[in-house]
Amino acid sequence: MDLGQAVFILSRLILGAIASFLAILLWSRTRDLAWMLVIIGAIAAYVETIYTILNLFGIITESFSMEAKHLMSIMLSSLPTILLIAALLVMVIRKYRHR
After folding, report:
1. Helix-strand-coil percent breakdown of the chain, rounded to 5?
2. Which of 4, 9, 34, 47 is the most exposed place for a label (fewest CB within 10 A)?
């Protein structure tokens, strides 16, 4: 692993941890569905980062089969975007329903 890759991994871990911490703080204060979906999406993005790093270091390879590993990678990489789409869709429906 070179220095650039180490900086990339550390920056993703640190920024993801900050975003997840703030999302958890906000989670206890909000009951809005759109915000809840954004918060869960932020936490899912951090989980995907952790999974990718564990996979990069070879920790995941022994505990999962190859098919499960690919399925997990696809699900974890798509989940934050799907949750963000759902949150935006809730907001669009909310805005057009009140007109």
Report:
1. 80, 0, 20
2. 4
